[in-house]
Amino acid sequence: MTIAQKKIQRVFQGVVVSDKMAKTIVVKVDSMKWHKKYKTQYRVSKKFKVHDENGQAKTGNVVLFVGTRPISKEKRWRLAKIVK
Fold first, then answer.
1. Rounded to whole angstroms, how far apart are CA atoms 49 and 42?
2. Is residue 54 within 8 Å of 80, Cβ to Cβ?
3. 11-29: per-residue pLDDT in tens?
4. How far is CA 77 from CA 3, 35, 44, 58, 83, in A?
5. Predicted model pTM
6. According to DSSP H, which parts of 1-84 are helical?
């Protein structure tokens, strides 16, 4: 990678569904996909484990999170900001 190229950082927005773990929140991200045969849209959701160092995000908050180095076995994301 040259100096002119920038590393593309993955950013997602989702809703916190669990904050029971220490320094970890579970965030659900919804997206829409097209069905090839029936040409209709359907909702797909995926859960991510996100590192929350200060424990500031609570269940129901909408948060923004970005990719980072592996922090644990399943955590590869860190909290960027609480949107709402």
1. 24
2. no
3. 999 999 999 999 999 999 9
4. 25, 29, 20, 17, 16
5. 0.86
6. none
* The CATH number fitting domain 11-82, selected from 3.20.20.70, 3.40.30.10, 1.25.40.10, 2.40.50.140: 2.40.50.140
CA distance 31 to 23: 26
Q: Which residues contact 76 (CB under 8 A, 6 or more apart)?
A: 67, 68, 69, 70
Cβ contacts of 14 within 8 Å, gap of 6 or more: 27, 28, 29, 30, 48, 62, 63, 65
> What residues are paired with 44 via a beta bridge?
31
Q: Which amino acid is at 66?
A: V
